[in-house]
């Protein structure tokens, strides 16, 4: 059986004169790009460039909406009513769709950014408000969720297309939550180890926890980063290890409904 | 022969806690609404409400992009490169399309706001950059232009759908430019007079200048305002006068190519 | 013995083309103005006008910093680190001081706005971070606090000048907290009643609760509003009632240290 | 006779998560820092850090106000009324003064940023509006002007303290304007040449043009940059060359009135 998985990373996080990230390098590694939409990062010019490069490289394009908080990069908690969150996602997704279309591309997926994502991973009603905003604009969009969190509960309840995401560089507890960053081993810094872990999780169709427990999960895409040499090394190592294991790297197709244990 | 014309006004110009305009009253008068897109006015919540109301009233929906200048309401000159203007329009149109779609509506037209419009009415290359941005997103969109200005030159050159606009409350010079506001009679304050003039221009398919000269023009839509009692009175008077003259008020269909003198 | 009290209200809450509030009317009633500093409302032009009017009317001028959240008017919870809150207050106070000085005035006091104030009234460490930022810029500034809240704990701990504030239009519980808005009688809508209550509390030097209990408090200033006819009527009624009772209305002098029972 | 000159550079141009510039390196070279004030770059946190570092290194601190245009970094032409420019400078200077004071420093000078500076160097009335805004806040502030431009005309007319600035890396025409960037030799890339030129101009108290002409000028400070290795190399070379020539590098004292030829 052919196994496939997607590799995703955040992109287009520059703003005006300020450059962030290593988009060109990442585009050689990932199969899906989450593009900032101008609220926590990105602007109309940055988005145009990012979409052009993503189209040119054949990368799957996603909208990456965040809180309206440029100075805080969308990483600060903000409390918005659900109706406003829904509108916020509609707006940013619409902008992303236009920027992609104008460069010959299509927004296939949506992933929440920063604190908006963090809050939604613990609050299914909030996640649902955000995702409903996206579905109001495009009923076929694939919602990327943090596997085994309230984000997944939300897409299962909505019955929409979705894809489950795991982290290449974070250790998991036995309840599928992330090991707290304050604990030793919580963050993986060794590219080789990261590669090995991802091969194992993709093969198992499961999150493999620190204790070795396997939690069947929607392992559709792996979250990579491009900030700094270590992150890029991990990204490249994960790609190489998966390819060496015979895994095909390509944009996720999306799934509907509850996770069933894979193969 | 049945004559028709469209009545348009700017809407959705509130922002956050600040209310502007009399959208509810205007929606009873106009057939097309130009909706602010969040850069000079409007925000994700204001846009959602405005789109909902426009859809409910059957009003034709337009995107009304402006300069990225909230404090100046897009009324201050800013110099952006043409590529950035194109991206700016793409972004705002995309946001408007999503906000409209989520409420069951469709963005039919695009009209530039404020100083962006003023500059484009005197600079066909700049107008073209803006309009190209819109066409990159939606090749079928109807571009609303100030009749007989460089805006019109731009749409004729682009070969896209467009509609010509005249002012209900401004006097015209014999070269189709507006009489300077410093001149007596430049701005029409008399609702009855405004109504009479519009009936005459729509019947003639021409701009009728102060001297009485008739300049054949694309009289597809009439620009109305809702700021203050006088503006609303003019809007209502124009509507009543046109209806009394047997003119059908409905959203413009759009035209392609050069203006030919209407029958 | 001559009793005095200050009447304060928020002002300068317009932004760009959007007008908010009835500053001119309020300036005839209040003795202190809390001027928005450009983050949740106000801008450089609005501030210049507001400072000019406050100076002309002899009103005590205060800086009214808020969260960096224009669209939400600073009414949404945001989580900023204490160091950033301190910097945020420094910045806004500095801007206010310059705008006042340029019009011949002086910023005498500081009052937190909206959700920043709400959060600080329940979190003394957060309040202290904000107030420390103000004192870093002006060690003599008078910090206006919600009487008998964590805001007051913070100024007492800091040993700075402060003034205690009570509400003209809110009922109090026996622990000096506000009666929840969902309860009947929580908000006072009757101008005559508001006036009578303020006369009683100023005379008593105490918060008088719904049950009639008197909690000795720093009744240095009374918070009024100007949004809507009822609010202005309450403001005027409170002023008239206090004057009729022989109370002198003037800007607070500020106090240092713990509250002792008055009179 | 002891000759002295100041070396200045722009700093604090990071924003939120985005880093710009090499402030730490520049602070080892310059004697004056122009600190962005949050409108075109910088924010409350960046300013606090920049002020702290400038105070620690004994660098003269200046406010560096710009247009309200973060995405365009204040480099785009914007047309604001003179009254609004005055208010804009007041506001930003006030914020800078507070941020400096809170870290134990003082804002000594003011320099306009980007397109605001460019426009003011060709429009004395506009320059005067900006500088008046600064003087309204601090009558003793030293206004840094581009020598022999309309900026200088403005400070001479105002009778305020000022300091004249020349460029380390730009060639001059015989009318004291800069050689257009499109011309060969317009921009100096050779650190050694830049150093030699600055030694010559400081010794002469004059701008030395491409043709060798000497235009007596207020050579009070030299503008350096820190963006990229070449810029830093030029900055260091200029510093070393001046010191080798016996010139004392220290913050300018400011001057009043017209330039007289230096001895």
Walk me through this protein's architecture.
The structure is a homotetramer of 263-residue chains. With 263 residues, the first copy, chain A, is α/β, with parallel strands linked by helices. Chain A has one domain: TIM Barrel. Chain A has eight helices and eleven strands. Chain A has a seven-stranded parallel beta barrel with strand order 1-2-3-4-5-6-9, surrounded by four helices. Chain A starts with a strand and ends in a 7-residue tail after the last strand. Chains in contact: A-B, A-C, A-D, B-C, B-D, C-D. The A-B interface holds A 38, 44-45, 47-48, 83-84, 87-88, 90-99, 101-102, 133, 136-137 and B 38, 44-45, 47-48, 83-84, 87-88, 90-99, 101-102, 133, 136-137. Chains A, B, C, D: This is UPF0271 protein. Chains A, B, C, D: InterPro entries: Glyco_hydro/deAcase_b/a-brl (IPR011330), LamB/YcsF/PxpA-like (IPR005501).
């Amino acid at each position: 059986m052919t196994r496939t998985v997607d590799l995703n990373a955040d992109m287009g996080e520059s703003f005006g004169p300020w450059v962030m990230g290593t988009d060109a390098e990442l585009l050689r590694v990932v199969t899906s790009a989450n593009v900032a939409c101008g609220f926590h990062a990105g602007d109309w010019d940055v988005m145009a460039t990012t979409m052009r490069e993503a189209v040119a490289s054949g990368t799957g394009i996603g909208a990456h909406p965040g809180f309206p908080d440029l100075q805080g990069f969308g990483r600060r908690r903000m409390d918005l009513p659900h109706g406003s969150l829904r509108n916020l996602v509609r707006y940013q997704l619409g902008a992303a769709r236009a920027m992609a279309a104008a460069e010959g591309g299509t927004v296939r997926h949506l992933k929440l950014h920063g604190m908006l994502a963090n809050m939604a991973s613990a609050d299914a009603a909030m996640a649902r408000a955000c995702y409903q905003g996206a579905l109001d604009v495009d009923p076929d969009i694939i919602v990327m969720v943090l596997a085994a969190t309230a984000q997944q509960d939300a897409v299962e309840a909505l019955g929409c297309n979705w894809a489950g995401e795991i982290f290449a560089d974070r250790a998991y507890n036995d309840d599928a939550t992330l090991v707290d960053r304050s604990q030793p081993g919580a963050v993986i810094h060794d590219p080789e180890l990261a590669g090995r872990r991802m091969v194992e999780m993709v093969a198992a169709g499961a999150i493999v926890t620190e204790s070795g427990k396997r939690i069947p999960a929607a392992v559709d895409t792996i979250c990579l980063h491009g900030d700094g040499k270590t992150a890029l090394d991990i990204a490249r190592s994960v790609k190489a290890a998966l390819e060496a294991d015979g895994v095909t790297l390509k944009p996720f197709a999306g799934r509907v409904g509850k996770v069933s244990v894979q193969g």
